[in-house]
Design brief:
This protein is of the alpha+beta class. The protein is globular. The two termini are about 15 Å apart. The chain has one domain. The protein has three helices and three strands. Strand 1 and strand 2 form a beta hairpin. The longest helix is centred in the last third of the chain and has 9 residues. It has a three-stranded antiparallel sheet with strand order 1-2-3. Bound molecules: zinc ion. Zinc ion binds next to loops. The site of zinc ion has 8 residues, from loops.
Length: about 100
């Protein structure tokens, strides 16, 4: 990870390495917010939150945005996905 936050390669799962496009899915929260996505992998059931800074140009740091979007985690967890990276802890340690 480059420390930039929710970077997720489009064509490959960074956790299990699958390159199968049918396994790399994008989940949407019920309360849709433009510029926010969940990228998930059906192979290993991992997910990450993503922020499109072209749209959310005034967004805060990944840490702040992560705290501010718990409903995305709810959606992903309800779908049976899990989060392989404890980003909050990770970022806190580096700060
Ligand atoms: Zn995967």
């Amino acid at each position: 990870m480059c420390g930039g936050g929710w970077v997720f390669p489009r064509l490959r799962c960074p956790f299990c390495g699958t390159q199968s496009s049918k396994d790399l899915v994008r989940l949407e929260a019920v309360e849709k917010e433009e510029g926010y996505f969940i990228s998930a992998c059906r192979q290993c059931k991992a997910y990450v939150k993503e922020l499109d800074r072209r749209i959310r140009w005034n967004a805060g740091s990944a840490l702040i945005e992560d705290w501010g979007s718990p409903h995305f985690d709810v959606v992903a967890i309800r779908e049976g996905y899990w989060r392989p990276i404890a980003s909050l802890i990770h970022l806190a340690r580096r700060a």
